[in-house]
Amino acid sequence: MDLTPIRDYTDKFLGWMRGRGAVLIVTHDHPDPDSLAAAMALKHLITVKTGQPATVAFGGMIGRGENRVMVEKLEIDLVPLDSIDLNRFPVVCMVDSQPGTGNNSFPQDRKVDLVIDHHPLRETCQEVHWVDVREEYGATATMMYEYLEAQEVGFGTKLATILFYAIKSETQDLGRDWIRADRRAYLKLLPLVNNSILFDIIHPEVPRAYFAHFSHAIHNAMIYKDILVFNLYKIDTPDMVAELADFLLRVDEVKLVLGMGYYEGVVALSFRTLRNDLNSGEILQKVVAGLGTAGGHGMIAGGQIRDTGGDKESLASLEQTLTHRLLEVMHCYPVPGVPLVSE
């Protein structure tokens, strides 16, 4: 692989960044492994190449069991975005997200200097000085691995494990939305991984409430032809929606899954598909048009709907609206729904 273009690009933005002071690296809200890995890799790159102090900040929470173990075991150092003074940071970077997408808590009226992402490019990036968006990549972590490689920056087993697990989880072990670059990074990182820590991440201990969410999703899921829709109503961690969307996509003959759950005033949405002829981000954006924001690509997407009631009646009504819209977008309305399981 010719890393010359990447080396030239990183030389330029690192040269621009050098000497400007403290750097803030922002992940998307409720960061997943890809967002965390990209942030930590960028922090390492900046520390080694420019010596500037860099802080990783996030909005929301880290709720999924795997992600909590990952943060603890791999000593990922990050702080809540609402706990810091943004005026302390002359340079702001955003990874695995973009300004104005609705999935990060960074104020929209503040400038962002660098964006590194693998989701479709947004118009808001026109105001960003440095933009590296590669929609064809399966993981932002792959892009950051190439940055480190191009700059000949060494790293230890913990960062290698973070990057490897990010690519592994984001592409479902190279089974979803991957390209040759993802496979190359995956295979190069594999020998460097701490296998004991990786096992602990993949098999975390979880509270009993975790299984209650599974039970709830299974018993209220409805199937419309090859589309499954579930509503978790109130949840204690927004990550559960994505986890259950992945889980329920395994249902026989189901090709698309839309899940929702209410967390602290926001309805979190997750969309998954097995069809590689669809663009999940575009589909979910059509479904939530006028109601909220969404983004994604290929076979995976997520969204948020704010300013909606958290009572059961409001959430049930929203589920009906979103289901109706999804069936229309997929040109299969009206289709009667049948429960996933019968009582």
Task: Set out the fold topology.
Elements: H1 4-17, E1 23-26, H2 33-50, E2 54-58, H3 65-73, E3 79-80, E4 91-95, E5 114-117, E6 130-133, H4 140-150, H5 157-170, H6 180-189, H7 195-202, H8 208-220, E7 222-224, E8 227-234, H9 239-248, E9 256-263, E10 266-273, H10 280-287, E11 293-297, E12 300-306, H11 312-329, E13 338-339
Parallel strand pairs: 1-2, 1-4, 2-3, 4-5, 5-6, 8-9
Antiparallel strand pairs: 7-8, 7-13, 9-10, 10-12, 11-12
Any overview of this molecule?
The protein is an alpha/beta fold and 343 residues long. 39% of the residues lie in helices and 19% in strands. The protein is built from eleven helices and 13 strands. The strands form two sheets. A seven-stranded mixed sheet has the order 11-12-10-9-8-7-13, with helices on both faces. Strands 3-2-1-4-5-6 form a six-stranded parallel sheet, with helices on one face. Helix 2 runs antiparallel to helix 5 (157-170), helix 3 packs antiparallel against helix 7 and helix 4 packs antiparallel against helix 5. The protein starts with a helix and ends with a strand.
> Please, what is the average pLDDT?
95
Q: Number of helical runs?
A: 11
Strand content: 15-25%
Strand-pairing-aware structural class: alpha/beta
User: How many strand segments?
Assistant: 13
How far is the first residue's CA from the last residue's CA? 56 Å
Helix content: 25-40%
Give helix and strand order, one letter per element, not per position. HEHEHEEEEHHHHHEEHEEHEEHE
Biggest sheet record: 7 strands, mixed
Question: Uncertain segments of ≥5 residues (pLDDT<50)?
Answer: none
Query: Taking Cα atoms only, what radius of gyration do you get, to the nearest Å?
Result: 20 Å
Query: Given the C-alpha coordinates, what overall shape results?
Result: globular
Major beta sheet, strand line-up = 11-12-10-9-8-7-13
